[in-house]
What we know:
By secondary structure, the protein is mostly helical. The chain is globular. 31% of the residues are buried. The termini are far apart.
Amino acid sequence: MDKLIKTANSSTFTSFGLLLFRVVLGIVFINHGSQKFFEWTLAGTAASFEQMGVPAPAMSAAVVASVELFGGILLILGLATRIVAALQAGAMTGAMIMVHLPQGFSASNGGYEYVLVLAAGAALFIFTGAGKHSIDRFFVRKRLAA
């Protein structure tokens, strides 16, 4: 039993878990960013943001859509992970405070449940980094060897 616990806690298992979660979270962010760029368009997203009271709606729409779409791609690759994760966590925290908090917890009522999970998921990578299976890891190794 001890051996099983040590194996489950190994850095290899942890890194595969981080990889899996990075890919899933990245796909969700890519989907949301793509929606803002291509389905709703940036102008439509900005109009929606304006109705919700988001400051500087045109700029906010472009920034959030970019953080979601391009940040999602970078998250999957594990490139600039901590920076990307901080931007994504910030965007989701902003959405939670400005838009979803007054609606209560339940996402089905427009509440903050979903964006809270996305913010927490992104925050995980601020603290852990991308893990072994990432492009970031290649740069860290190179820097440590120098």
